[in-house]
Amino acid sequence: MKEMPKDMPLGIKQLFTSITHLKEGEKVLVITDDNKREIGEMVYKYAKDLFETTMLVMTPRPGHGAEPTEAIRTALTDCDVAFGATTMSLFHSQARLNACKKGRLRWVGLQDYSLDMFETGGLTADFDEVARVIDRVTEVFHGKTFTLTSEGGTNMVCSVEGRKPVVDYGTSITPGSASFPPNAEAALGPVEGTSNGVLVIDGSIPHPLLNLIEEPIICTVKDGLITEIKGGKQADILRKLLADFNDPTVYNVGELGLGLNKENYLCGHMAPDEGSFGNIHIGIGKNLSFGGHVDSPLHMDMVIKKISCDIDGRVIMKDGVLMV
């Protein structure tokens, strides 16, 4: 590979090295939209001098998991690494899933980024150490009954029987892999219809209308679905946002994602918030990536702070401290 310029931010360098292991001669695709062009253009600026690089711009998608344009869907099938510098996540889109299944593409989601994330925070982490922590958790992150509580008042129980842990090391090194750096997590998909209890969302909901939570949002969960949303102004926004889909699948409790990158902190941006250590994000809506069968028009994550969780009585995390 050509020598990297001295003015390259550490986070950009990590994207090309530790996170993707990009090699000279590989094809890079940068996908962006009208709201996140400065992020896409930052990646393109440095990638174009090192690799064969193309950038495609589209209008922002209506929600996480929505499909990109046909041109982008086609381009994904003929590149080695794609950086999705978009407003909404393409991770759960069929275009991304299908391209990775073909075995060549390495996907790196950069959705909801801000420029300062290339300089400080989770992208500066030692991703080898992050991987060691995730592997340690994954060894015990399975079983039958998952119990989740938090200092904020969360208390939910669900079945995870037959569900395998899904990991995001924050790296996309092997063909067909997908990551969302600086997120780093081990996740499980609750069995449909089994989640019951209360979720108190007090961290963040990485969505342009919500982000950092100012007043806790209390979600009642019954038989796998959120049935009631209470709280202040942000609870009203969430309630309307979900109701506007006019689709019951958006209320499905589809993911339990344990954040495991210690350099991340809650800041209102998706990747660092979801991967923030000691917290968990509850993904609602689509759960196809987590062993489930709910194909919803939405997948949205909601972060709960300082959690405790156990599987079949084995404590994985207590008050935000990892116990394994």
3D shape: globular
| SSE series | HEHEHEHEHEEEEEEEEEEHEHEEEEE
Helix residue percentage:
10-25%
Number of helices: 7
Please characterize this protein's 3D structure.
The chain is of the alpha+beta class and 324 residues long. The chain folds into 2 domains: 10-118, Response regulator (Rossmann fold); 126-322, no CATH class. The protein contains 7 helices and 20 strands. β18 and β19 form a beta hairpin. The longest helix is centred in the middle third of the chain and has 12 residues, at 127-138. The chain starts with 9 loop residues before the first helix and ends with a strand.
Descriptive key words:
324 residues, alpha+beta, Rossmann fold, 20 strands
What does the secondary structure layout of this molecule look like, with pairings?
Elements: H1 10-16, E1 27-33, H2 37-47, E2 52-58, H3 70-75, E3 81-85, H4 94-101, E4 106-109, H5 127-138, E5 145-150, E6 155-159, E7 166-168, E8 178-179, E9 185-188, E10 196-201, E11 204-205, E12 211-212, E13 217-222, E14 225-230, H6 233-243, E15 253-259, H7 270-274, E16 280-285, E17 299-304, E18 307-311, E19 314-318, E20 321-322
Parallel strand pairs: 1-2, 1-3, 3-4, 4-8
Antiparallel strand pairs: 5-6, 5-18, 6-10, 7-9, 9-15, 10-13, 11-12, 13-14, 15-16, 16-17, 18-19, 19-20
Care to give the gist of this entry?
The chain has helices at residues 10-16, 37-47, 70-75, 94-101, 127-138, 233-243, 270-274, and strands spanning 27-33, 52-58, 81-85, 106-109, 145-150, 155-159, 166-168, 178-179, 185-188, 196-201, 204-205, 211-212, 217-222, 225-230, 253-259, 280-285, 299-304, 307-311, 314-318, 321-322. With 324 residues, the chain is an alpha+beta fold.
